[in-house]
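Session log. Operator J.P. requested a structure for one protein chain; no other inputs attached. Running the standard single-chain path with C-alpha cell output.
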Amino acid sequence: MVELLASIIVFVAVGSIVAGIVASSLRGTNKTNVIENIRQSGNYTLAQVSKNIKYAQTFNGLSTDGVTYIASCPFSVSPTPAPVTTAYSFIKVTPLNGSPIIYNCSTSPLTFTANGVSLMDTDTISLTECAIACVQTKATDVPIVKVGFKLGPKNPSGLVESSSPPILFETSVTIRNYKR
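Structure written below.
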C-alpha cells in the first residue's frame, strides 16, 4: 500500500511538471502567433498607405478637421529654415483610379480608417496611438508625410501576456506628384 501511494505521488509530481511545460509552450506559441499577426497587419497597412500617398495622381491635402484641406505644410521663413512638423488627423489623395481616398487617424475613438473603413482587424488588434504629420522646410520643397501608429493585442487572453508593449509602425513618404 505504501509503495502504491509513493508511486501515485511520483506520477502526480511528474504530471504537474509536464503540464506546466506544455502550458508554457502553448503560451509562448500563442504569443508568437499574436505578435506575428500584429506585425503582418501593421506592415501591410503601412505599405498600402505609403504606396497610395507616394504614387497618388493628386495630393488633395491634409486636414485637422476633415473639412478644410491644405495642400502644403507650414514651413519656417527664418533666414535658416528649420523643418516644422505639424500634426494632422486626415490626409486626402486621389490614386490613379480617380477615386479619392481619405485616411483618418482620429483619436475619439482611436481609429485609423480609409474612407471610413478600418485598415486593420479591430477584433484582434488594438490601436493605441495614431499620427499623421507633415514636414516642409520651405515653400519650394515637397512635403514629407509621416504616418505612424502603434498596435497591440486587443484582449490578451490567459495564453498571451499583457506585458508585451505595443509595436510601433511608422514611415515617411515623399509625395511624387506634388503640384503636378
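Operator note: The radius of gyration is 25 Å.
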